[in-house]
Design a protein that fits this description.
There is one protein chain. The protein starts with a strand and ends with a helix. The chain has a seven-stranded antiparallel β-sheet with strand order 1-7-6-5-4-3-2. The longest helix has 21 residues. It has nine helices and 15 strands.
Length: 297
Amino acid sequence: MKKEITISTLINAPINRVWKCFTTPSDIKHWNNASEDWHTPFAKNDLKVGGIFTYRMESKDKKYGFDFGGTYTKIIPYTRIDYTLGDGRKVSNTFSSGGAGITVEIIFETEQVNSEEQQRVGWQAILDNFKEHVESQTGRTESQPIVPCLWFNNRAEEAVKFYMSVFKDSEIIDTLYYSEAGREIHGHEAGSLLTIDFRINSQRLTALNGGPEFEFNEAVSLQVMCDTQAEIDFYWERLTEGGEEGPCGWLKDKFGVSWQVAPTILIELLKDPSRAEKVTDVYMKMKKFDINALLRA
């Protein structure tokens, strides 16, 4: 009689990265082994209901090896993958978003050759290897030749201090001051603050002490792309301090600057023609984004 075993892990990464690493053959070959003396030299994956996947798992000395494969029976992008193995056993993989990251849970039916404990340990070792692989992936770093400049009504220094308190990965790059030259045009005293060049979360910005001539509006906003619900909650709470909430992840901070606090997974969900309309209908009714509600749509 087949029994079910449940294993799980918590991965500190966005759901789109977790999903990609779980389903892409080039990634699967990196993590699909329970110990260092085994590897996966071949992986093929047709990710659709009725599609077939096949992995070749071998010991590195080539003394042992076997093919591992099955047929997909249910796929909910970024949420669930079910399949039936070649011997008829059923496996369910679920992906759920929480404050600390993505929980991957696997429920599989046991086979009769190895003990239940051996099977649990082996599957968990592979899942742990998957976690390590996902968390080792780093985002691509690109140069930033275009630097947004924010015009403040003589509150540039206050604004920069606030933003640096919100975004922990931040620094002041340079500071400039007005000179006497051009005072008849700029109207500021010599020695007063002109600009602060600063960086928050790898994004370089310039804060300018201009004057009352111009004000911010929603036509330009800064997007904070968040991998987890905890990040969304944090940035939403901090950036709305003294400001105001808006629809669809939009908000204004206390200086009038518009921000969008949005989940990275939203873009991937909207690319899926089978889910785009439902997801859009859900998020258009939101103020602060709820990742789990989007995934349920």
